[in-house]
């Protein structure tokens, strides 16, 4: 059985490839990447795979039985890209697609949900066997700003007192590995989130505790936060998406207490303090 992983040189994809190599023979893994030269260090077969080159995808999927479709990063282009991958997978004889969606995609207040939900519908309509991994927020999405917050003297956002049940990227990668290398996950949807939830005030307090510096959380409006992110050099679309996601978090969009992720991977999710420590090291 061959397992294909799209976006294999991305942060999540690399972790999935490494995890799979512990569970299955390396020669059964196929890394599907936009730039094969960047995948030379993965130690598995690599094939060119660009979501936006629809006519080339089926050839790259020949012989793949299970496919991990890691959602693309071109917001606004993702649904047609994902549909192209699904169509190519069907054409190539792929038996199962595992897709990284968004936590509570059918009820989430985050605008990101539109493309994810559209992909889920396309997947179900394809007739292929599927597994949907509705990933919550990566803790690293927030801790990536920790060093900047320390030097600026404050952590900023617009999530208010929203509880965020995030998990480390490695936790979500492990869940994908469990599903790809295992059985019994056919046509299931998993709501995946961290075991512990926190507010951004509590995250700022953890950063303060670990650094010995007072780093408060400053809650902004969505427009203020968007403008500040743009001033940091972020593209407007990404800045708007991050601020919209914080607004969604303030409405409970990033909270879940079902512990499905820790049950799936057979261990507690990575504690917030551990991810903070890594970020500020």
TrEMBL record:
Coiled coil: none annotated. Gene3D superfamilies: NAD(P)-binding Rossmann-like Domain (3.40.50.720), UDP-galactose 4-epimerase, domain 1 (3.90.25.10). InterPro entries: NAD(P)-bd_dom_sf (IPR036291), NmrA-like (IPR008030), NmrA-type_oxidoreductase (IPR052718). Residues 2-245 form the NmrA-like domain. SUPFAM superfamilies: NAD(P)-binding Rossmann-fold domains. This is NmrA-like domain-containing protein. It comes from Paludibacter propionicigenes (strain DSM 17365 / JCM 13257 / WB4).
